[in-house]
Sequence to fold (277 residues):
Amino acid sequence: MDTIKKVAELTGVPEHTLRAWERRYGLVEPARSASGYRLYDEAAISAIRRMSDLVRAGWPPRRAAAEAARRIRVDEDGAGARRDLLAAAARLDGETIERILAESFARDDFERLADEWLLPTMSALGSAWARGEITVAGEHLVAAGVVRRLAAAYDEAATSARGPAVLIGAPPGADHEIGLLAFATAARRSGLRTVYLGAQVPVPAWREAVVETGARHAVTSLHRRADAVRLRPVAAALADLPTLALWVGGRHQAAAPAVFQPLGHSVAAAAAALSAA
Fold:
């Protein structure tokens, strides 16, 4: 537990502002020491940081407090959903998996869902498999359900596209597409004219797609470091197209050939960056 002075140092929010937020908006309810001093736990400090970030982004304080509280509730629900999903995967309970995915996709806007729940959950699923807690069948059961949900979200995304086409796909031999499909959905929702090619796109198909669509951007991902070698022939096939920009996302994007520009690790931020490019 930290004092108000320490919390002000940790968050950059002055003490008088912390007191005002507590009094006016009920953002947090700090405990009290035997001497009556405010004491803040990690949950309270997290809430203060969330509200501070929103206020700095231009949100009015009252709306920022309500949104911070809403996001905390979503996070709490999401943590429980993640635990339940992993448990359902371990027992191959497809019905429960579908219910959890349906509820989770309905709980928040797509970009926040992808960045704050879906992709971390898939990472947790992979870790559980590596520890032997979930079988390959359980992992595939969840992944199949997620791909179906993402495909539906992609189809439902706004179609008022603008600008040149954006090609999105995985290199030949790479079959991880959840991150790519999540990005494609966010990009389409932002108004980009996306062409989603899917997993394991052959090298000649990349060039054919660029020529056919007049694409100015090609986006791929590097989920496994070992797949970096698979990006080299893609880069070589597209190297003589001077108007085409190559982008890469994924956990190991830093290992991609230098011609690929990194998109970072946030689906929402990557879509916004490409929209502005």
